[in-house]
Amino acid sequence: MNPISQLFKNKKERILNIYFTAGYPNLDDTTDIILSLQKAGVDLIEVGIPYSDPLADGTTIQDSSQTALHNGISLQLALDQIESIKDQVTVPLIVMGYYNQFLQFGMEQFVQRLVACGISGVIIPDLPMDYYESHYKELFQSNNIAVNFLITPETSPLRIQKVDQLSEGFIYMVSRSSITGAASDISDEQKQYFERISNMHLNTPRLIGFGIHDKTSFDMACQYVQGAIIGSAFIRYLKEYGVEGIGEFVDRIFDN
Amino acid sequence: MTNYKINKQGFYGKFGGAFIPEMLHANISNLQNQYLKIMEDPDFQRQFKKLLRDYVGRPTPLYFAERLSAHYNTQIYLKREDLCHTGAHKINNTIGQIILAQKLGKSRIIAETGAGQHGVATATVCALMGIECIIYMGEKDIERQAPNVSRMKMLGAEVRPAKSGSKTLKDATNEAIRDWIDNPVDTHYIIGSVVGPHPYPDMVARFQSVISEEIRYQLIDKTGKAYPDHIIACVGGGSNAAGAIYHYIEEKNCNIILCEAAGKGIDTDHSAATSILGSQGIIHGSLTILMQDQEGQITEPYSISAGLDYPGIGPLHAALIDGQRAEVHSVTDDEALKAGYQLSKLEGIIPALETAHAFAVLDKRSFDKDETVVINLSGRGDKDLKTYIAHL
Ligand SMILES: Cc1ncc(COP(=O)(O)O)c(C=O)c1O
């Protein structure tokens, strides 16, 4: 079984997935960040591969991506970094990036490298589901790499069913129709959306992401699904407190 | 000959498609399902044609350029899109899309702009219809196309600077897409060229196809010929070119000549000659040809002309070039400036810097004396005076 699916089987609630940008704040921080997050008790780690034109990301992740690219990060290097600590990593890893990066790398080679690096899943926000199904499903499935698709408040019920069928690890529930908006409390409208999805009784577990930034919003998300994803808030913290601050950041979310 | 018609999934052969994040899916799939239905509706067509005639000033003339023809010893006709209201072809598309946006029940319009021509054309139709309008424009372009920024503001639009990357058209497009993700319900995104996810390339090409529809009967009227021997247009994203060639794509005796911006030269790192410097990949939701590094990071382009300063081309053009249906030339800043000055002096027409690239082809290859050459004069140069004068 894929380690991500295994995780959702073993742990039914309060799964914390942390997103960070490879090569940020410093080029060589990637490995330290992964190991520190693991030590702090994070359940899943999403490694963002910086892209020049990250269409689906807000300003915090855009800025961190620019810095990381400036630092000299590349897909090749990020994978090398991950591979170098492969034997120490037990937390399932997910790679997030844009389709063009993997297309230029070569999709087959990319998947081979994921396997070699011990990576369990990918998120490719601009790879459409239908295209995945007709072009790459076989490739990812036969290599046991989970592909996690997104849904948003605008995704139709019919399409959600399809996402449910195709997603391997979890469904990434985008919490709201805003990528650039500031962190805020969860609104009634969002709660209705979370409830609507819960009532669909999907097979694939869900994680809520976008706008989750502290213990309150994490707890709120966990009332509806098995866990949540924190990205921008973590990157902002990392910028201010560096890798040494990671333990405290995670403790505050879990409230240990 | 390869078929250059778009298929149901939005591909011209291997180019096109809709590689978009899920956040845009509801809007894009709605557009995909609706655009042809709406555009083919007689009521839509009536409204569209009426505005093109009474508001834009169509048909635009097809003008025989006598002195230019004598200079190059061939028969040159100019399709006068510079005489459209607002000064460029861009308004053909924005008139179509604003009516479409209303049919879709949208109450807020966003757009990207490079040269500011598309921004002005969008601000204009929004003023016409009384709809809120936000234009994203690269910080660098806000500076070099200042007159158009003032026009947009006077027309009631808000101009938001795009500050990322090269601070030009690509980055303005990124910002507009992010705005749409943030405002999925009330907003329609009026893309200004034949780029972006399906159905935009096809939709914009159809709105611009009025250009070749007119050339066709005007040319028959003037020369008795069913098609020109050559048709020349500049290519940023490719909308004026798509419009000018639309009805001639299947006519294989009509040679298509596309002009890209070479900037300071294709062997410098200051260029926007996508078809030469680019390779296949994804930009703004479309599988096409773009300038990128080996890792798929999009390269920052350069051209003196803001409207051609884009690292991609529309998927239709990628297919035409890949299938060798189109001949491509790259034109440097200096060559374009020279061609702009020459047209001004020979014909009394100051072209946009974008358009000047198309005229530079006349110095790059020869045409027979009795060949008919149509050049799409996509826009006028008022906005570029500062740049022209600086290079006097
Ligand atoms: C006058 C003029 N011509 C051409 C272009 C390039 O765009 P496209 O290739 O879509 O025609 C622009 C873009 O701003 C323009 O203003």
Could you walk me through the main structural features you see in this protein, from its secondary elements to its overall organization?
The complex is a heterodimer of chains A (256) and B (392). With 256 residues, chain A is α/β, with parallel strands linked by helices. Chain A has a single domain, classed as TIM Barrel (Alpha-Beta Barrel), CATH 3.20.20. Chain A has helices at 3-10, 29-40, 59-71, 75-84, 99-105, 107-116, 129-135, 137-142, 157-166, 188-198, 215-222, 232-241, 246-254, and strands spanning 15-21, 44-48, 93-96, 121-123, 146-147, 150-151, 171-174, 206-209, 227-230. Chain A has a nine-stranded parallel beta sheet. The mean pLDDT of chain A is 96. Chain B has two domains: 12-51 and 90-204, Rossmann fold; 57-88 and 210-390, Rossmann fold, CATH 3.40.50. Chain B has 16 helices and 14 strands. Chain B has helices at 25-40, 42-56, 66-72, 90-103, 117-129, 139-144, 146-154, 169-182, 200-208, 210-223, 239-245, 274-277, 315-322, 333-347, 353-359, 385-390; strands spanning 11-12, 15-16, 62-64, 75-80, 108-113, 132-138, 158-162, 187-189, 230-234, 255-263, 279-283, 286-290, 326-332, 372-377. The longest helix of chain B has 16 residues, at 25-40. Chain B starts with 10 loop residues before the first strand and ends with a helix. The model of chain B has no long low-confidence stretch (mean pLDDT 97). Classes of the chains: A alpha/beta (256), B alpha/beta (392). The structure holds pyridoxal-5'-phosphate.
